[in-house]
User: Fold this.
Amino acid sequence: MNTFHTTTIRRTVRGALSGLVVWALTGCMGIPERIDPGTPRAQIEERLGTPTAEYPLPDGRRLQYSRQPGGQQVYNLDLDASGRLRRVEQVMDINWLQRNIALDRWSRADVLQNLGRPALIERVASFRGDVWTYRFLEANSPHQAHLHIDPEGVVRKLMFTDEATRDDPPDRM
Assistant:
């Protein structure tokens, strides 16, 4: 191998490793679960950036960091009245969804405050209203949660399906 090819390969490998290190470091810093309780809002936003949504709570504020539509997580960071982190919760989890979504009681506003904007909004012939779809992982397998919201803005039904991927055989899609 000549010197040009050896140098090019070394530069490529070095660049890829540098990129991997930067990605790993920024990825670790951008994980909401790794922010300690009591952290002030300014430090949270310094590490995570601007939240995708923000909501008032009775005793503070909720900063929401959603990775929908492409990702499969939604993180709610609840701040106390002084603007310090009280709690971090990743809500795109089948147990959380089943335990917390209150059918016939949750409104569209409740859905937004807890889950954020959906990955997809669509309609189906068998329901009069919108179906909001959220992506999540369960045992490293991609799934979807479908919330049926009637024209009055009330959640009437919650369904779960497997998410079809490009690697699925044609009979599964």
Observations:
- DSSP finds four helices and eight strands in the chain.
- Residues 15-29 have pLDDT under 50 and may be disordered.
